[in-house]
Amino acid sequence: MRLLITFLFSLWGCVGARAGDGVIQHRLKLMQFNVWQEGTQVTNGFDKMIDVMLASDADLVALSEVRNYQGKDFHERILDALKVKAPERKYYGEYAGGDVGLISRFPIEAQAGMFDGTANDTGSIKAWRMTLPGELKATICSAHLDYRGYGLYLVRGYEGGYPHFKMRDADQDGVPDRVTDVEEIMAYNRRSQRNKSIADFLTFAQQEEAAGRVVILAGDFNEGSHLDWTERAKHSFGHYGVALPWDNSIALQRHGFLDAYRVVHPDEIEYPGFTWPAIADGKQTTSWALKADERDRIDFIYYGTRVIPAFRATQAWLVGPKACFIGNEKVPNPGRDSYVGDALPWPSDHAGVLVEFTW
Predict the structure, then answer these.
(1) Would you say 65 and 42 are in contact if contact means Cβ atoms under 8 Å apart?
(2) 319-356 per-position pLDDT tens digit
(3) 23 burial class (0-12, 13-18, 19+ CB within 10 angstroms)?
């Protein structure tokens, strides 16, 4: 009986646990956050970044564009700042390599890596293993994928980083020369290392799931989703009449990974979920395609359900300003997306994504 009482008390005390009908339901919030070169592109960007993390109330924050400038561990800097601003909370974080990171309210048990192209500036994916409430074994992966071969730009009439980013204007009429041929766009997109990085992740994820671990992947993908670039949406949001079967969103779906934002908000018109280009504090624009509508959802949180089918995304928000840039113009979100922290000075050119999971 004493052991039973101890066990029940431990469940009751878990972070995010809710009791109902005699069943303990656990929950956590995970945020994907591209920190734009560690907040260095905006005045006092690091402090603003910490304020955003606290405002999100996230239990886990996956970071993209970690650089460890001047040899200083970005995780240690964040943990020191959080200790000052939120001394009542305990956070953990360890650099695992690459250009990504993770801040957690749960102790980190181990690290792993499956892709690291940072020597060639083609991104990375790293993993942190931990135990979540209810003794749930989980592997949280943070990704920052290759930014070149950016096929999204061909549709908008711009080069996607091979060899440069600039407007395509062969006839010099001042109007972008847009590409609408699906095969040409996808072939260009496949010149990047994104397909390899996701293939390496899926191999790794299968091993983790075989070991009984729930796997979550959060990151800046620098690529669109087939759930957004649909026939229904091809005349909206700078799609210019094109529907596109983006390789990596399809590959993840085929392997049983769900796009958390689209699970909660399946309507791609009513909930476009734009994360790029965000209204960064003090910046005239963050857009690179000034004569096109390049608004898009390129930051994602995916999760597997093979280990625990009851593990699911139940709520999802964007984090940051309610507007995006089209060229130099600030335009309001045309949909019904919900926002957290929209009144805060924003330190990044990407909006964040925040998802609540329950099990």
Answers:
(1) no
(2) 999 999 999 999 999 999 999 999 999 999 999 999 99
(3) exposed
Question: Would you give the distance in Å from CA 139 to the centre of its chain?
Answer: 16
Residue 11 Cα distances to 18, 19, 26, 184, 202, angstroms: 9, 10, 9, 54, 32
Low-confidence ranges of the chain (pLDDT < 50): 1-14
Tell me which amino acid residue 5 is.
I
* Dist. CA 117–CA 119, nearest whole Å: 5
pLDDT at 18: 57
> What CA–CA distance (Å, rounded) separates 257 from 260?
9
- Cα separation, 56 vs 355, in Å, equals 10
Q: What is the DSSP letter of 167?
A: B
Integer-rounded Cα radius of gyration of the chain: 20
Q: Taking Cα atoms as reference points, which of 128, 123, 121 lies closest to residue 103?
A: 128
Of the candidates 259, 291, 256, the one whose C-alpha atom is nearest the C-alpha of residue 275 is: 259
β-sheet bridge partners, residue 113: 126
How far apart are alpha carbons 292 and 227 in whole angstroms? 21
pLDDT, tens digit, 9 for 90 and up, residues 164-189: 899 999 999 999 999 999 999 999 99
Task: Return the pLDDT at 14.
Answer: 44
Indicate the pairing of strand 136-145 with strand 123-132: antiparallel
CA–CA separation, 330 vs 251, rounded Å? 34
Tokens describing residue 342: 């929209």
- Measured on CA atoms in the order 303, 306, 308, 312, is the torsion positive or negative? positive
Tell me the two tokens of residue 53: 């993390």
Q: Tell me, yes or no, if the pTM score tops 0.90.
A: yes
Helices 194-210, 247-254: crossing angle, 10 deg rounding = 10
Which class for 88: exposed (0-12), middle (13-18), buried (19 or more C-beta within 10 A)?
A: exposed
- Preceding peptide of 163 cis, ω within 30°: yes
- Tell me how long the chain is: 359
H or E element, residue 259: strand 257-259
Give the per-residue pLDDT at 107.
98
